[in-house]
Amino acid sequence: MKKKASKPWIALTAITAVVLAVCIAAIPITSQFSSVISVALNAKTQEVIPDPEATVHFTSNYDSEEELVAFEKELCESIEAEGATLLVNNDSTLPLAQGTRFTTFSQSSYNLLYGGTGSGQVSAEDAVTLKDALEEAFGEGSVNPQQWDFYANCGYTRVNADTTGGSQSQYRINEVPWSEYTEELQNTWPEYGDVALVVLARSGGEGADLPSGLPELEDYMTDGDYLRLCREEIDMFTNLQQLKEQGVFKKIVVLLNSSNALQLDFLDSYGVDAVLWIGDVGMTGINGVADILAGNVNPSGRIVDTFLKDNHSSPAMQNFGAFNYTNGADYEVATAQNNTDPGVVKCNEDYVVYQEGIYVGYRYYETRYEDYVLNRGNAGDYDYAADVAFPFGYGLSYTTFAYSNFTVEDRGDTFEVGVDVTNTGSVDGKHTVQIYFQSPYTQYDMENGVEKAAVELCGFDKKMIAAGATEHYTITVDKEDLTSYDANNAKTYILEDGDYYFTVGTDAHNAVNNILAAKGADAARMSGTGDASLAVKWNNPTFDKTTYAVSGVTGNAITNLFDNADLNKYEGAEDQQITYLSRSDWQGTFPAGPVSLRITEQMWADGLSHDEADRAALVERYKEMYYPDATMPEMGVAGDLSANDFAEADADDPAWSDLIKQIPYSEMTNVIYNGFHLTQPVPSIGLPGTLDENGPQGFTKSLMGGSSAMAYTSEDVMAATFNLEIIENIGKCIGEDFLHAPSDTGTVYAGIYGPGANIHRTPYCGRNFEYYSEDGWLSGQIAAVEVAAIQDRGVYVFTKHFALNDQEEGRYGISTWSNEQAIRELYLEGFEGSVAKGGGMGVMSSFNRIGVVWSGAHHGLMTGILRDEWGMDGAAITDCSVMASFMDYRLGVLAGQDLWDGYSMGMATLDGLENDPAIVNAVQRAVKNIAYSVTHSQAMNIGNATVRPITPWWQMTLYVITGVMAVLTAGSVVMLVRSRRQKPDTE
């Protein structure tokens, strides 16, 4: 028998050995995710020894942070005041008189929707409540306190899907059942019976689209559709209508608190007197809503989506979702709804087909309507009024406006459009003039598959007009905006010969009616009336396929880049042709349901394969296509150039190559690999690391455990202002927030993930709050101003999600199939505004595939469009790339991707390729783009400082613990051996 003294040493040896093993295993894993961990822990990763003679490139325009915050609160309120849109105002219900008393209805009246969830989520801790806003505008005690307290304690709360990795089945409206309103509570209503104020809110966010018809949710929402009234809301409206008839309530006013357009088939059914769309209101925006209700502000917003009576009437809804390739099992495909399942890296099971082509939103409804009126295009017995509740661009005011003297002058590359607007009412008001054009739809178009919308927005301006006064508007329209993309014959942008129409319209439908009136259309077939005097015809005498076949920014030729996203042009897919919706035959081409697709061997080889051998072969193809004559460049060359020398250098300065060749390969790959919410320092050129953060609704750190700065309204409310001065102020204030952001680590915030420039393809996209509109052109105009303003404050912008990321379902690797005309005319226009017009230095590529090629590895997208056509100089970052093998570093850098948002564990595919000429050239190009963005940001306020990477505290702690455990384990083993060598116990 051994002495009992050995037992403690056995236990200690086991414990220390296990801890040591865990630490040893943790070191390589945590090293791969060091940037993610450091950002989450706010850990210092670099030491910066300041340059005492540094030139400060960017300074704040505010003397104090308090001054900035005060302005931002006013700004958020003014955004909502000018973006909120009055849709219904029966019998001039609004504005309401001082002293009006309200009883609020719906749990969302207490729990307002201030913004979306996920990467765009902002803190609403200090947000203004509806009660506070109403009592500020109408007086203390104007809101029923018992009803307010009831909602505070009722236990019913709207439920969104999980922040970034949820599913549609998690959404819940959770409205209070009518039976919960006690008799005691109902007895308070007459005293506060001037207005029953109903708030209808629908939340959305990253990771899950809104349910558009899930059978498992039919107990919670009508037909499992989140954007329809649920049973409890129907009961609420039914009872409110009865109470109004009984005189308990005088008026019913509805606030639509949602960036996802609710289905508005109910508005004529329940005695509703007024409806105001308010979107997501941000921190102080509800004050602007209260000011509209009180008449302190005359509403001037215009909706940036078509609001429908039937959300499913849209052709895009027929192919909305993630669909499985029919033969996916033969290829062992896998799905990952989001980046929340670390065991799934294949992500190649799902696809979606944009079968509707260009006919999204008003481009569908107004175009089919015109063809019905003119009895052409097999439009059928189309009933516009049965589909559309309020057209794109619609909005009411407390005053009235009249147009006159509409003129259009051809100025060569532009048109000068003029119109007089008279305020014919009794109160002052702001008014947005909207200019639309119509292209001729010709035999050439029908033969070559070029589609044309009946009207397209091409200009706008907004002014305050005093009651009784007239203001003249002069708006410049670029002739380039009248072009169409001919993907099948000219394979570039064309300006056809024929008659074009310009009109000024109160909305898209009014614009069509003006043109129809000018054409002498049958008024009996029209929905609404038009004014022929507000439409001007311009004739283009010649077919032009050369003027716009080159980029106006770079001078490079423009031709097809997305044939591999169109199955009708895809090699080996001749039996899987897509019938795109065409106005040449509406009924014959309208989508009948989801398109059924199968994987072909070519699709597998071009990007769907998850086999490393297949991917390596694809890398070789990329090198041959994009770097065929690459020679080995120099790396790690001794030199005295520093990043600070390039703070004001143009991107085409030849000295950049001398700077970049000073960087060794390992430093370059470290920068490319580790871009999660930061850029890495590059000691060899003195380039500091930076911190980057999300920001479609304002500068936010909420995903990483911090708080946000000012939470502005959702992007659609911003766009609905049609006020570029407000947009510029938003951008500059977001940039100011970065300048004022405290950094405990010595690393400055210099980059922003946002704004979002995808479009509202359908009302159900989870991230519509992050995107401006259904209209790509309008999105581009707004993005251009916001991005330029943010960058003016020294913050580089990654406009997201580039491109065709118009849904959340299946987003992680989904194959998105479309055609070149739709891609260019709808889905890229918002980004084009950001980059080509706004000078944006960056984009964030998307999770999805374009065809079967991941967006970041699509050369046509990342180089052909982004660099060659739009002339972008800065860095393109990926969406979060942790665990994503399909977002391959080799393919990405060869195609034009620069920076990865998170290290892909075990996928360091650039390692060991320092002798590969094509790869090294691509890597140097990527690092130059990253360096350009950083050197042109506030990060360079440090001047010619010394930058040294340091081991963060958490990593040092892990090393220390590992060392201590190694010593303890060794010591305990020695003691255990010694104890066992003792003589046996003689007891």
Automatic annotation (TrEMBL):
Annotated coiled-coil segments of the chain: none
Tell me the superkingdom of the source.
Bacteria
Domain Fibronectin type III-like intervals: 431-508
- Transmembrane ranges? 953-977
Keywords on record: Hydrolase, Membrane, Transmembrane, Transmembrane helix
Q: Which Pfam families match?
A: Fn3-like, Glyco_hydro_3, Glyco_hydro_3_C
Q: Does the keyword Membrane apply?
A: yes
What SUPFAM superfamilies does this protein map onto?
Answer: (Trans)glycosidases, Beta-D-glucan exohydrolase, C-terminal domain
Q: Which GO terms describe its molecular function?
A: hydrolase activity
Q: Tell me the protein family, please.
A: Belongs to the glycosyl hydrolase 3 family.
Q: Which PANTHER family match?
A: BETA-GLUCOSIDASE
- Tell me the protein's name: Glycoside hydrolase family 3 C-terminal domain-containing protein
Per the UniProt entry, what species is this protein from, by scientific name?
Gemmiger gallinarum
